[in-house]
Write a structure and sequence with these properties.
The chain is mostly helical. The chain contains 4 helices and 2 strands. The chain has a two-stranded antiparallel sheet with strand order 1-2. Helix 1 runs antiparallel to helix 2. The relative contact order is 0.13. Bound molecules: protoporphyrin IX containing FE (HEM) (2 copies).
């Protein structure tokens, strides 16, 4: 297996699909009504189903990235190669943390989690009113840490467009023939 020099179409499509879904997911998370006792409402069912879609896509991306490694842009100084790789791995870890803490939250509440009300999914743990508050805190920590990591990642992308003016942003955009 050799390191490729550029991202292929599947990596690009998965990257931008997850970006779009995360934008909807964060907005929905903050706009949906607070949850109270009782089964999840429509907004929460959508939040859970979107979260599970993001989980499936990020796992697919992870498998794709491991089986199709791409070398960092050759013009980058060593510190930028190391830091960009580190932030990319951190983004994977934090998306997984946000989705898994969310799923645990729903499980501790005793909800039966389903995918768009169509496919029932297993609970990750039994109903546990005491653990709800802890996991709620962890879901929020994961969301904020993810948001900060995304901020750093996007700031770096903008620095490459406007300050370094190199081809890094181009690597994640549709290739021109
Ligand atoms: C990357 C994926 C996810 C992101 C970015 C995300 C983001 C958010 C945000 C911003 C909130 C509102 C703030 C809060 O109360 O914490 C929230 C709440 C919530 N999320 Fe997620 N979420 C994700 C995945 C999930 C998943 C997969 C589930 C369940 C299977 C889930 C379950 C919940 C629940 C139950 C709440 C309500 C918490 C409360 O009202 O205290 N989330 N999420
Ligand atoms: C407007 C927002 C975004 C922009 C402009 C952007 C830009 C880029 C660019 C230019 C690269 C290629 C860097 C390189 O390797 O040379 C990249 C890679 C990457 N981005 Fe983003 N990105 C954005 C949002 C996100 C978000 C929200 C995530 C969260 C999951 C993310 C996760 C990644 C990962 C993990 C890679 C490494 C390639 C891979 O493993 O598929 N990006 N991004």
């Amino acid at each position: 297996m050799t390191d490729r020099l550029r991202y292929g179409t599947p990596a690009k499509v998965l990257h931008w699909l997850v970006v779009a879904l995360l934008a909807v997911q964060f907005s929905l998370g903050w706009l949906m009504p607070d949850v109270h006792a009782g089964p999840p409402g429509r907004a929460m069912t959508l939040h859970i189903s979107l979260g599970l879609t993001i989980l499936a896509l990020i796992l697919l991306r992870l498998v794709w990235r491991i089986t199709h490694p791409v070398a960092p842009e050759s013009s980058l100084p060593p510190w930028q190669r190391v830091s960009s790789e580190a932030v990319h791995w951190l983004l994977y870890v934090l998306v997984l943390a946000a989705t898994m803490t969310g799923w645990l939250f729903a499980s501790f509440r005793g909800w039966s989690v389903s995918y768009f009300n169509l496919i029932p999914l297993p609970m990750l743990a039994g109903k546990n009113p005491v653990a709800i508050h802890q996991i709620d805190g962890w879901h929020q920590i994961a969301e904020w840490a993810l948001l900060i990591a995304i901020g750093v990642h996007v700031a770096a992308a903008f620095a490459h467009i406007f300050i370094y003016r190199d081809g890094v942003m181009q690597r994640m955009l549709p290739s021109r023939r």
